[in-house]
Write a structure and sequence with these properties.
Oligomer: heterodimer
Radius of gyration of chain A: 31 Å
Shape of chain A: elongated
Number of helices of chain B: 9
Number of strands of chain A: 5
Order of helices and strands of chain A: HHHHEHEEHEE
Structural class of chain B: mainly alpha
């Protein structure tokens, strides 16, 4: 084989191999890129589904909590007032006018208070109130309920210009607040609850603090349902792109911090 | 008995598959494939007979057939590509390319010579059309799984065939006087033909399962 012929053959082999290799690289890139892209899209869809599922769950839990609260309110408060009014009326003796005027006046006050409380409760029956009144107002309302039904001192503070997030995220944040307050009432044995909402242009920071007994954050020490509740809150925060942090000191209290970015994730 | 080179079986296989799956190809860009493949098989048989048996110069036959191949593939791309500008490029190619081949055959390389210059240009443009198609596939990741997209197989076959063919076109002036180089190219080319028509067969089968899955 002449030198020239050998060179031609080498050039042909090298040229063809290089070009074919280029083709293989192109196809491989296409396959890899598309499979990654499709995976990403599937994951995003999955996340969206989880988000919607969690949102629905949150809404149902808010509803449940609202009904539980209403039933408690009717039993403990309105029921008591009406029973007392009935007692007043049944002990009235028309033959003895002394004291009757006082009893009528007391009964009137009790019935009026019961009517006022019932009216308040009927507002609460609208389980979509988070969407209607907004997050800040809904949290304030929740704290009012707690103040009325327990011996807790509650403080609600906002900082910055209050603005609305989208309905879905407000519902989820509100549910985190409800869950945290439930935990405080059940386990913390605290006297004071402070909720602080800091509105910044890029994020909202929610802080819930109590001065209760605190707890050890090691998972082994957590009550099973309590641990699950925290995990739930953590998961919900993650789904809306928020940061959830919990810190607790034994004997001093617990603090829950949620950073919610304003930009939709 | 007629002894056919192995790549011709691939061409025949593609023709038979296109006929068997014709119902699925109807109404798609692939509907002309059976006619095209019939033409290709006829050209290969005629080329083999005139060249190997009769020892005639059959360059004119391959000049015509390769030009029609380019036009046919450009037609397929014009029907498959989505972007109007890309479609226009393929249609422009279909209009201009035959004229360039004629110019080349009559005024540059001659009628008895393989039109390697225009063939190289056509090959580069075919690779370019494949790239355009792949680019559109990248932009539409939800368009089914890649291995089930018929045009992906057609483009893959075309891409490898013309990428492999390109070095022959570029080295043609040297290779035409070098018997060993020509033989080497022939064996490379035969394998590329095998890949090309195997890809077509897969594409037709994909098209049939696609139509089946849509009709269920």
């Amino acid at each position: 084989m002449s030198k020239e012929s050998r060179e031609i053959i080498i050039a042909l082999i090298a040229g063809t191999s290089t070009l074919l290799l280029l083709g293989v690289l192109m196809i491989s890139f296409l396959i890899l890129y598309r499979s990654r892209h499709r995976k990403l899209i599937r994951e995003r869809e999955q996340l969206k589904l989880s988000y919607e599922r969690e949102l629905l769950k949150s809404q149902l839990e808010i509803q449940e909590q609202t009904f539980r609260h209403i039933s408690q309110e009717i039993h403990d408060n309105i029921g008591q007032m009406l029973s007392l009014a009935r007692l007043n009326i049944s002990t009235m003796d028309p033959t003895q006018p002394t004291g009757m005027e006082q009893k009528i006046s007391d009964s009137k006050k009790l019935v009026s208070q019961a009517i006022y409380d019932l009216r308040n409760l009927s507002h609460g029956l609208n389980t979509d109130y988070v969407a209607d009144m907004g997050l800040a107002r809904a949290i304030e309302h929740e704290l009012e309920m707690i103040r009325k039904s327990s011996e807790q001192e509650t403080v609600f503070q906002t900082e910055g210009d209050v603005y609305r997030l989208d309905k879905q995220r407000e519902v989820i944040i509100y549910r985190i607040v409800q869950e945290t307050l439930n935990n405080i009432l059940k386990h913390a044995a605290s006297r004071k609850i402070i909720i602080h909402l800091h509105y910044r242009p890029e994020e909202i920071t929610l802080t819930i603090t109590d001065n209760g007994k605190g707890f050890d954050l090691t998972p082994l020490d957590l009550d099973k349902s309590f641990g699950l509740g925290i995990k739930n809150m953590h998961n919900r925060a993650r789904l809306m792109g928020a940061r959830f942090q919990i810190s607790s000191t034994l004997g001093e209290g617990t603090s829950v911090l949620v950073n919610v970015p304003v930009a939709n994730t | 008995m007629l002894h056919l080179p192995i790549y011709m079986y691939a061409e025949l296989g593609a023709l038979v598959t296109s006929l068997l799956t014709y119902r699925a190809l109807k109404g798609t860009a692939f509907r002309l494939f059976p006619f095209f493949l019939f033409f290709i098989v006829a050209v290969e048989l005629a080329g083999d007979y005139t060249g190997r048996v009769l020892h005639y110069n059959n360059a004119w036959l391959y000049n015509i057939s390769t030009t029609l191949e380019f036009i046919f593939y450009a037609f397929i791309f014009s029907r498959t590509l989505r972007h109007p500008a890309y479609k226009k490029i393929t249609l422009g190619f279909m209009a201009v390319f035959p004229m360039l081949v004629l110019l080349n055959m009559f005024f540059i390389q001659g009628l008895t010579e393989f039109h390697s210059y225009t063939n190289a240009l056509g090959s580069i443009l075919m690779v370019f059309f494949c790239c355009l198609f792949f680019y559109e596939l990248l932009l539409n990741p939800l368009e089914g799984e890649l291995h089930k997209v018929p045009m992906f197989w057609v483009s893959t076959g075309i891409l490898f065939f013309y990428l492999g063919d390109l070095s022959f076109d570029l080295l043609y002036n040297l290779l035409k006087n070098d018997a060993m180089g020509r033989d080497l190219f022939k064996s490379i080319n035969n394998n590329l033909i095998l890949i090309l028509y195997s890809c077509f067969i897969i594409a037709f089968l994909c098209q049939r399962s696609l139509v089946k899955s849509l009709s269920h």
